[in-house]
Amino acid sequence: MCGIIGVTGSGDALPVLMEGLSRLEYRGYDSAGVALAAGTQLWTRKRAGKLAELVAAVGDAPARTSCGIGHTRWATHGRPDDRNAHPHADCSGALALVHNGIIENYLPLSDELAGAGHHFASDTDSEVLAHLIEARMAEGDGLADAVRHCLKAVKGAFAIAVVHSSEPDLIVAARRVSPLIVGAAEGVGLVASDIPALLGHISECFALEDDQIAEVRPGSMVVTDLDGNEVTPSRLKVDWDLEAAEKGGYEDFMLKEIHEQPKALTDTLLGRLQPDGTLRLDEVRLDDDELRDVDKVFVVGCGTSYYAGLAARYAIEHWTRLPVEIDIASEFRYRDPVVDSRTLVIGVSQSGETIDTLQAMREAKRWGAKVLVICNVVDSSMAREADAVLYTRAGPEIGVAATKTHVSQLVMLQLLALHLARLRGTMYPDEVRTMVRVLHELPAKVEEALGRDGHVSEVALACHQVRDFFYIGRHVGYPVALEGALKLKEIAYIRAEGYPAGELKHGPIALIEPGTVVVGIATGGHLLDKVLSNVSEVRARGATVVLVVDDGDESTAALADHVLWVPQTHELFSPVVDVVPLQLLAYFLAKARGNDVDKPRNLAKTVTVE
Ligand code: F6R
After folding, report:
1. Residue nearest to atom 9 of ligand 1 (CA)
2. Which residues are catalytic?
3. pLDDT per residue over 184-211, tens digit each?
4. Are residues 470 and 354 part of one domain?
5. Section 234-242 average pLDDT
6. What is the pTM of this model?
7. Is 303 touching ligand 1 by the criterion CB < 6 Å?
8. What is the dihedral of CA 49, 53, 57, 63, to 10 degrees?
């Protein structure tokens, strides 16, 4: 996830910027850069790769320059290279800007600006902001007014910091959706995306709210709204140490990432919708005719990414009427599947580097299939080699167990399914629009589910001595059961089996004995009655029953020893919401056992061996 740092009034800005960037490294990044306000031009350096590359490149920086901005980039638009690294300049080189977030309408805006003679030096969505501000300043606005005007024209999410050589001690900062903190004390002014970057420099700072603009100068700052009225931002007391600050105040990265899921979903959905309500999957390099020609779909992945495919299958089949097979990558590549040029093979991978999935994609290409990859890391090996790529925008995931990337993959697969259905004419535009509206309600529903974490922790405490767990579900609830069981195995080291609820009686029910915990996915799908029959079968054999239940469904709740309540949503989207209490349950069980949830034993975040 990108990081921002800015300082003005410091005797020497560069060391402050470099230290701030190193404190933002934990968020993950693929390039970094700084700009210093030095005389009539700005001095800028940016480098792809680790911070060491940038350190090696700033040796000739102008000495004792007191104002500057810095950035660590996690690519979303444009590959991670020097050109696309921030800061971005306007045409004159007098302005430098850093940006976190996504500008949804950057394409029409950059077309307009290019038509007016602006030259773009990168493939990013961010650069458009630099030129928009430049255009406004050319009409006579000062920097802050130009920023204000430009922000009225943009859609999407942003936190920005801007410097201009005409006012070399001023940083203008603003935000919408993406966080930004500002502060001023004893002759310095600071701007940062996260608290770690500011630690040691300032003890009190302010969190900007949406559409607030801060003019930060040495020792002073003024915050205004989009209309220029002065406002008071929210005060933040910074009393965290560095480790707590990196985790955003959460105990572990995994918990932080579980709580980042609403944002991950919002960002993944951002900008995918055209003004007329149709879908824009602009990274798809397969044209519409090629996609219309598809007569079979494979979804291939490993672990949690494979389960995202399993959960999305129901929507893809239902909406597109295409046959869909979901395969474990390490099986798919060796089993001679029936694949030809009309087959669409969708690789799903957080890292884009998992060797099993990468090799499966290569095989699929060799067999002549069209290969589309859904992944979270821009320019990863899979992204580079596929015919088309769709990026989830969950930001870097540091905890080894996948959480926010899983729900983002699900939503991305569902968007793709709607896109295919529209192309194939198996859904009316109105139906697609209705589903897209429901998709946009998911971040709020996930937020609500997260709000019940206190109750999930009580359920975990009640069960933490138990050695055997079963997770059961039917239809879309089945992959949720598999993912819930996987999370428990990975971080709590508890034996857990995910099973289709209807299959229990064909064997595994022999393992149920008094005290076994059975977690059932019992939200309101069309097979709820059948799930409940299976729940009764395990209850009769003494199992402790934990059920994931839709808010208000008291009759289902009555069958459980413990209830995990979730807000109700459309059946095909329910895995996105229903998985949340299961992630939390695994997390609290692991913590109750004293495990390191961020680095579970025997596991690696990215598996690059077969
Ligand atoms: C589970 C988990 C793993 C990964 C799997 C695939 O929490 O993290 O099961 O899902 O190793 O990794 P990616 O998605 O990077 O291909």
Report:
1. 303
2. 2, 605
3. 888 899 999 887 788 778 777 888 988 9
4. no
5. 70
6. 0.80
7. yes
8. 110
